[in-house]
Amino acid sequence: MTGLLIQGLINGLILGAIYGLIGVGLNVVFGVLRVVNFAHGEFLVLGAYFAFYLMEYAGINPLVALPLAFAAFFLAGYLLYFVLIPRLSKADDPEISSLLLMFGVSIMLGALMLLAFDADARSLPYEIEPVFLKFGPVLIPTVRLLALAIALAIIAALTVFLYRTQLGRALRAIIMNRDAVRIVGINVERLSAVAFGLGVGLAAASGVLVAMVFPAFSPFMGNDYTLIGFIVIVLGGLGHPVGALVGALLFGVTEQVSVVFFSPSIATICGFALMVATIFIRPSGLFGRQALR
Prior knowledge:
Layout: H1 2-33, H2 40-58, H3 62-84, H4 94-117, E1 132-135, E2 138-141, H5 142-164, H6 166-176, H7 178-183, H8 188-213, H9 222-236, H10 241-261, H11 264-281
Antiparallel strand pairs: 1-2
Helix pairs in contact: 1-5, 1-8, 1-9, 1-10, 2-3, 2-4, 2-8, 2-9, 3-8, 5-6, 5-8, 6-8, 9-10, 10-11
């Protein structure tokens, strides 16, 4: 039982770090734009397919494909912002309109992936030597530990960007008070496009890690990861990368440790129970807005 508990704890930390990276991208978009990006999971799956086809046809290592996916999808998200989002300000209810718009984008991307890639699941066969590392009675796939390190490194880099650069501070200021930032003459539209591109790029990078860690991916997985992203936001608080990471780690560990004692369906309920308890005890999340200052 002790070995199973340790295994569940380590798996929870690894999955939690990946969940944190998923949540961070969604967090930035929602915090800056107040847009509920229901298509976040679809962008994640597209990132997985991006890495798959680079490896399949060009022989490009997933570790090289990851920054390429981030750069390509950042640019796509930056441009897509100007196509989709500014028009919402003319709507009678911009928030409801944005919700419906991104829900439509989610459905459209899912259908396009189904047409382009079929319904068959794909896998990204990537292994490094040694394939497993042994810690006492626990065997951990090396690629999972690598994914953990990459996810933590990306979240750390994003934290430095948001707190140590002028552009990052401006994005945090928009999260706290968008109107005040506009009054002082900062180009809010340009910053919003950067935030949307950043969110889409992080989703694609998360997709590469998901493809490396999990045995298969398909066009139907997007909604599951979007839901995980929203859970991370609720647990960690709005706009804070470290908060997203802590919330995701709590969710991942709760879910994986619960599997040791209960069935997978009960373990999922335990994860959602943690989210509901957090809403009751601390509605702003573990870190909340005060951590942005």
